């Protein structure tokens, strides 16, 4: 059984990739996915100790699952399942595993994922069509401002995808503003892949050193790890700060190690495009029921074409909305909104429910704040409390009142504020072996 096969109606032509399934009707896409689902269920029934046990425990006969709606017969797979049954989810023998990666561990202990040669090919395919979606081509040179080591899937995915596209790649890694600008000067890359908040540091370094960054070779930036858009697809505060200083076009992309796929914007900037040949998607509420059209739900995915560790109805923990109207780019596939927040990170603060990105958006409007860390903890009466430590330069004497007024105006509530230096905050944001900046720390008592 060839679980790792990619669609047949695909082609490469002068660096432009055309996934035929992504321009089909909703009914054609649905039938295609139902065929792939049948193959997946047979595969995990034969090879996955975890799903064999789950099917037996729940009395599930996979022959009765014929449609996407029938998927509801199978319980969701959670992050706890992955933690407690990591090895049981591996479907191949060790000699077929080519690469081991781990999640970033931002919400707990990192998880290990085993990838076969076919999985790496699927990863390359995903990133190739995703970056092509964002207007990339073989004529571009990409500067990777993200790590490719430390068991990080994303950096490797970008490299493999760009190799498949035929584009040039400069693997600089994260941080090091001076080295980034020296590379841009020497090699003239046209596109960067970076965490958005790092772009602010690049701009500040360029201005301090007299670098003419507004006329440099980079014209597009694919932003990872942090939101750059609001729910209505307009640029958020961070996105506006970047483009207000640097005349570049920003593209948002959302991905995770667990699904081995990405939702990336096209030039219309109206949400991340779904690749139906790689993922079946659902949007579920707290009772694992589908949310109504237009409502936000937890993105839940079933991975298609994965050999090493396929997942069925995996709840990502990320809350977003689905948009089904065809896009101006010609794709007919579903698009996801910006991630509104992570389910586990939702804060109940003084009667208001909010997610950390709402706090970030306020903080990013304040020029003297260079970096920050948001901490949430359980107070003496058992409710959520928020403290934000800011790294500031030339903060006014009344910064505490000023910041709280900003928060009350936007969110109706004001967290506690602590002042620190940007250098101290940076050390906390990037501890040893960190792959992403830490901006949120959850110290709440877990019940």
The secondary structure category is alpha/beta
Largest sheet geometry: 6 strands, mixed
Total tally of structural domains: 2
**Helical percent range?**
25-40%
Per CATH, the superfamily of the largest domain is ANL, N-terminal domain
Termini separation comes to: 44 Å
Query: What's the number of helices?
Result: 11
CATH architecture descriptor of the largest domain:
3-Layer(aba) Sandwich
Rg computed from alpha carbons, rounded to a whole number of angstroms: 22 Å
Strand content: 15-25%
Number of strand elements: 23
Could you list the spans in which at least 5 consecutive residues all have pLDDT below 50? 10-15
Largest sheet strand order: 6-5-7-8-9-10
Q: In one word, what is the shape?
A: globular
Q: What number is the mean pLDDT?
A: 91
CATH class bucket of the largest domain: Alpha Beta
CATH fold annotation of the largest domain: Rossmann fold
